[in-house]
């Protein structure tokens, strides 16, 4: 009989992978970005820890928690509260935090399946809940931060578009919420004991 912990374990792994992809955005991997801004200087792509300018040559900012969101080539007429945007960019660290919590939920799920442990499944449910909350907050901030920045850029006459990292985040959060539900139901399920759990007599 399949372990009650298995569905939650599988969903937690899926969430961890999706949130990992969102976390390795610029300046780590410029192909997965949250926002793309096109200016005469080139295309600026934004990620969790910084940004990259793709022109004749690629230049990236240093990795940091919180960074300057001003795209290269934007005129001074673009009205943005840089202090507020810089502070909001610090909250992007929630993406890897949510991914790490998802991974911990997966590890607890593996233990729950391998050892037929209700306790490990309960821990998987707790980590899934924490990961889902962190991911949900990250998603809400994403929608505010990147849409505000996108609208300011478009109003100034430039082109801007949301990147695929946003959809990795959406899918990761959805998987984490499903993992949380599956884990809580799994913790209430029937676990094998004795010979059924693989004990030797």
Automatic annotation (TrEMBL):
<feature type="transmembrane region" description="Helical">
    <location>
        <begin position="122"/>
        <end position="144"/>
    </location>
</feature>
<feature type="transmembrane region" description="Helical">
    <location>
        <begin position="164"/>
        <end position="185"/>
    </location>
</feature>
<dbReference type="GO" id="GO:0032153">
    <property type="term" value="C:cell division site"/>
</dbReference>
<dbReference type="Pfam" id="PF06687">
    <property type="entry name" value="SUR7"/>
</dbReference>
<keyword id="KW-0732">Signal</keyword>
<keyword id="KW-1133">Transmembrane helix</keyword>
<keyword id="KW-0472">Membrane</keyword>
<feature type="transmembrane region" description="Helical">
    <location>
        <begin position="93"/>
        <end position="115"/>
    </location>
</feature>
<dbReference type="GO" id="GO:0035838">
    <property type="term" value="C:growing cell tip"/>
</dbReference>
<dbReference type="InterPro" id="IPR009571">
    <property type="entry name" value="SUR7/Rim9-like_fungi"/>
</dbReference>
<dbReference type="InterPro" id="IPR051380">
    <property type="entry name" value="pH-response_reg_palI/RIM9"/>
</dbReference>
<feature type="signal peptide">
    <location>
        <begin position="1"/>
        <end position="30"/>
    </location>
</feature>
<protein>
    <recommendedName>
        <fullName>Pali-domain-containing protein</fullName>
    </recommendedName>
</protein>
<keyword id="KW-0812">Transmembrane</keyword>
<dbReference type="GO" id="GO:0005886">
    <property type="term" value="C:plasma membrane"/>
</dbReference>
């Amino acid at each position: 009989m399949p372990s009650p912990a298995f569905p939650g374990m599988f969903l937690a792994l899926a969430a961890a992978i999706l949130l990992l992809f969102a976390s390795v955005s610029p300046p780590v991997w410029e192909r997965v970005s949250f926002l793309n801004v096109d200016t005469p200087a080139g295309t600026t792509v934004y990620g969790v820890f910084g940004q990259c300018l793709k022109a004749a040559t690629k230049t990236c900012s240093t990795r940091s928690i919180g960074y300057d969101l001003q795209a290269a080539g934007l005129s001074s007429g673009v009205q943005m509260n840089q202090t507020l945007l810089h502070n909001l960019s610090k909250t992007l660290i929630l993406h890897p935090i949510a991914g790490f919590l998802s991974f911990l939920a997966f590890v607890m799920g593996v233990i729950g399946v391998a050892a037929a442990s209700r306790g490990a499944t309960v821990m998987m449910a707790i980590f899934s809940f924490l990961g889902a909350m962190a991911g949900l907050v990250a998603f809400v901030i994403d929608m505010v931060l990147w849409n505000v920045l996108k609208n300011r850029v478009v109003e100034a006459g430039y082109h801007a578009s949301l990147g695929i990292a946003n959809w990795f985040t959406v899918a990761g959060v959805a998987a984490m919420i499903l993992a949380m539900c599956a884990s809580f139901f799994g913790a209430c399920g029937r676990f094998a004991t004795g010979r059924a759990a693989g004990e030797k007599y």
